[in-house]
């Protein structure tokens, strides 16, 4: 199959970094046995790593709620049906990849039905976190490392879940998952900084 690796950044008008992203994704869902192994462009191993950014953690308005979180806590919700109409509304008529909105296009691509985009599936986990910890809790240096391990087909049900693995003075570490009707569709981790090393109250000396 064809894969692509994309590194992107989003900055404000003053050049301040707002978000960074490293994505490895399928460019075609149907297997092509004629393809030969090759690599074009910069290998993923040569790209700058992306991780949590603790430099803005102290400005997080949700810090009090985040520091009250305890290891072992579980967040979950009732199953949600991801309808085709929901997927079309999300694209707001600007669908660039119609495998997410058009059954005929999805079938030609080798899919049983339109599938929800990866960021759409992840948004159910993010909504769960924001409902529990505050609407701005993820805007100050959070790092998501996510694998989409199965398709979320239109009209299927999914259930997002979060498990708090570890809490330290400087970071929350969580396991993320979205479970479909018969298999996992997303697995990943969240690292959410609470303070910089060396910051008063962090309990960790700056290296």
Explain this structure to me?
The chain starts with a strand and ends in a 14-residue tail after the last strand. The mean pLDDT is 89. It has helices at residues 63-67, 84-91, 103-108, 118-133; strands at 3-11, 17-26, 74-76, 80-82, 143-148, 156-167, 171-179, 184-193. By secondary structure, it is an alpha+beta fold. The protein has four helices and eight strands, in the order E-E-H-E-E-H-H-H-E-E-E-E. The strands form two sheets. Strands 3, 4, 5, 6, 7 and 8 form a six-stranded antiparallel beta sheet that branches. The radius of gyration is 19 Å and the shape is globular.
State the share of residues found in helices, binned by percent.
10-25%
What is the element string, with H for helices and E for strands? EEHEEHHHEEEE
Tell me the β content: 25-35%
Overall pLDDT confidence: 89
Give the beta-strand count.
Answer: 8
Radius of gyration: 19 Å
- Which shape, going by the Cα principal axes? globular
Features:
six-stranded antiparallel sheet, 207 residues, globular, alpha+beta, 8 strands
Can you give me a brief rundown of this structure?
The chain has 207 residues and is α+β, with helices and mostly antiparallel strands. It contains four helices and eight strands; from the N terminus they run E-E-H-E-E-H-H-H-E-E-E-E.
Q: How is this fold's topology laid out?
A:
Elements: E1 3-11, E2 17-26, H1 63-67, E3 74-76, E4 80-82, H2 84-91, H3 103-108, H4 118-133, E5 143-148, E6 156-167, E7 171-179, E8 184-193
Antiparallel strand pairs: 1-2, 3-6, 4-6, 5-8, 6-7, 7-8
């Amino acid at each position: 199959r064809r894969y692509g690796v994309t590194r992107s950044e989003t900055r404000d008008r003053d050049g301040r970094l707002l978000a960074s992203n490293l994505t490895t994704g399928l460019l075609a869902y149907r297997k092509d046995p004629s393809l030969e192994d090759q690599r074009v462009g910069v290998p993923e191993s040569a790209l700058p790593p992306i991780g949590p950014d603790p430099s803005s953690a102290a400005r997080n308005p949700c810090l009090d709620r985040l520091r009250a979180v305890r290891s072992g806590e579980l967040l979950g919700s009732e199953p949600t049906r991801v309808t085709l109409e929901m997927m079309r509304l999300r694209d707001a008529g600007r669908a660039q990849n119609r495998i997410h909105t058009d059954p005929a296009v999805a079938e030609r691509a080798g899919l049983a039905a339109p599938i929800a985009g990866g960021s759409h599936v992840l948004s159910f986990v993010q909504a769960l976190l924001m409902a529990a910890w505050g609407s701005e809790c993820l805007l100050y240096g959070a790092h998501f490392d996510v694998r989409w391990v199965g398709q979320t087909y239109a009209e299927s049900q999914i259930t997002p879940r979060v498990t708090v693995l570890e809490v330290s003075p400087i970071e929350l570490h969580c396991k993320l998952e979205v479970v479909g009707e018969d298999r996992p569709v997303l697995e990943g981790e969240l690292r959410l900084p609470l303070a910089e090393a060396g910051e008063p109250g962090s309990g960790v000396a700056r290296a």
